[in-house]
Amino acid sequence: MSVQANSQKLILVTAADTAYFNLLQEWVKSLTAFPEIADLERCVLDIGLDAGQCEWLTAHGTRTLKPSWDIELTPGAQIPKYYQAMTARPFLPKYFPGYEIIMWLDADIWVQTASYLLNYITGAEKYGLALSAEIDRSYAILFGEYNEFRLMHHSFYYSCFGRQIADQLIQYPIINSGAFAARRDHAVWARWQFTCRTTMQRAILKHSEQAALNLALYEGGLIRQTHLLPSLANWLCPMSTPLWDPTRKKLVEPNLPHEVLGLVHLAGLVRQVQLRTTRGGQVTTALTYSGIQALAATAQVE
Predict the structure, then answer these.
(1) Would you state the torsion angle of the CA atoms of residues 131, 132, 134, 138, taken in this order, to the nearest 10 degrees?
(2) What is the tens place of the pLDDT at every residue in 223-255?
(3) How many CB atoms lie within 10 A of CB 227?
(4) 96 with 102: CB under 8 angstroms?
C-alpha cells in the first residue's frame, strides 16, 4: 500500500511542547526520510511550542493546531499544559472532521521501517482500529522480571478505577496508546471519551488516558473489533533494549530472527546506551533517529 494510492483521506497526528521539540524534529525527519510516507499529511497539537518551532514545522510540511481542554477537570487543580495532549486524544475526530482515518504517533516515536506505519493505516481501513500491545517474547516483564512496571500499571488502574477493576485489567495485555490508527466511525472514540471523562474525574495521571483506553477496549468487548499489530510496530525500548545490526545498519529485535524494528518508541529512554550487536560486540549510541543515523554513517563493522 502507498499513501498516494489510498482512497480514504487520512492524517497523522502528534502533540508536543518546547520540551519535546527535539524529539518532534526527529519524528518529522524520520517520516520524511521515506518516499512512500513523506507526503502523508501531518499535524502537531501545539501544547506549548514557540513561534520559531511552529515556523520550523511549517517549513517541513507539518501544520499545527492548538487543542482545547476537552474534558472538564477538577476546578483549581494544578494541571500542566501538556495534559491537553491526554484530554484531546480521544476527541481527535472533532479536530479533524474531514478525515476518514486518523493515526496518532507519540512524538517520542520514530519510524525506522515505513511498512509498519502503513500497516496501521491498512489495519484501520480494513478493521477499523489498529494498535499494538505491550507484549513480546523479548519483554522480560512477561517472565516475572521488571515487576515494577506491572506494579506501576496496577497502581494506575487502582487510582483510576478501584481495586476490583484494577485486579481484572492487569491480567490482560496492556494496550499502548502511543501509536494507533482508527476510522472516525469506530466505536472506540465514543467509548474512550466516556471512560476518559470518568477516569480523569477520579485520577489525573500521566497514564490516565491509556488506562481509560484499556478499560474501553476490554470492558465493552471492543478488543474484538481491534486489529493487533506486532511489537515491532511499536517497540518499547525500556521494555527491551534493541540490538544493533552492523550489516543492515538497523536496530533489530534482541532474539532471533533479529527482525528490523518498525517504529522505535523511546518512552523516556533518551540517554546514551550500550547496545549489543548481532555479531557479539557493543556500540554506544542514543536510540533517537539522529543517533542511529549517525551510528549507521560510521559503518562500524566488527
Answers:
(1) -160
(2) 998 999 999 999 999 999 999 999 999 999 999
(3) 18
(4) yes
Considering the entire predicted model, what is its pTM? 0.93
Parallel, antiparallel, or unpaired for β 250-252 and 243-245? Answer: antiparallel
Cis bond before residue 257 (omega within 30° of 0):
yes
| Identity of the residue numbered 155 | S
The stretch 172-185 carries a mean pLDDT of 96
Start-end ranges of CATH 3.90.550.10 in the chain? 10-138+174-231
Residue with cell 543517533: 291
Q: How far, in Å, CA of 288 to CA of 26, rounded?
A: 7
Give CATH for domain 10-138+174-231: 3.90.550.10
Which residue reads 500497516 in cell numbers?
Answer: 119
Q: Are strands 129-133 and 235-236 parallel, antiparallel or unpaired?
A: unpaired
